[in-house]
Amino acid sequence: MILATNDRAESTLRQTRLANVVLGFYPRFVWSKLPSEERLLTGLEHRSAKHCNPGDHWLSAACPDALNGFGTRDIGLFELCGKFDSIEIWVDPRPNDQLVLVWLLDLLRPYREITTKLSLVHTDDRIADYAPESVAKWKLPAFKVTESHLVMASRAWKAYRAENAGILFRSADDGSDDPAETSIGAHCVA
């Protein structure tokens, strides 16, 4: 199975036929208010009465035949991941895609039965900018997800979700009087 960090990459990757199932994630974490952790988790559960609005379930926008015998569009993420021996996460370089990656790794971290199946495929360009036939010929390395990937992703996600996360992205010369903020900003902006 391939999990893509955005819907356009999902469409291109599905057409490559590199995997039995290709699914994408649709959350927008950049330039908008972050959904609550509860809402994000609920969206990944098996579809129920809690998913009454379009977009409430992670597979709401998936193609009807996207799962090809591996379940229905009502299946939860964790249940679906359990059906596969290997799962590749294809990651575009855009900021939202990077945030989707750290969110997914943080979310999956407690589930060793899933994380041991994960590999990361990082692209240098947006997948959707290429024809599926071209993408199918790419020879990108797939890196096994390690504990250090999971720890780093958890730290990054928690920092991004923090109420005062803005201080992490200030530059060292922003005029801040607080040396801790300046120091953190200098490390993160470099």
- In helices, the fraction of residues equals 25-40%
Cross-sheet strand order for the largest sheet? 2-1-3-4-5
Q: Provide the structure class.
A: alpha/beta
Report strand %: 5-15%
Integer average pLDDT = 85
User: Which of globular, elongated, flat, extended, rod-shaped describes the shape?
Assistant: globular
Q: How many β-strand runs?
A: 5
How many angstroms does the end-to-end distance come to? Answer: 35 Å
What is the H/E order? EHEHHEHHEHEHH
- Number of DSSP helical runs: 8
Uncertain parts:
169-190
Radius of gyration: 18 Å
Largest sheet: 5 strands, mixed
Describe the protein's topology.
Layout: E1 2-4, H1 7-16, E2 22-24, H2 37-44, H3 77-81, E3 87-91, H4 95-108, H5 112-115, E4 118-122, H6 132-137, E5 143-144, H7 147-161, H8 179-189
Parallel strand pairs: 1-2, 1-3, 3-4
Antiparallel strand pairs: 4-5
Helix pairs in contact: 4-7
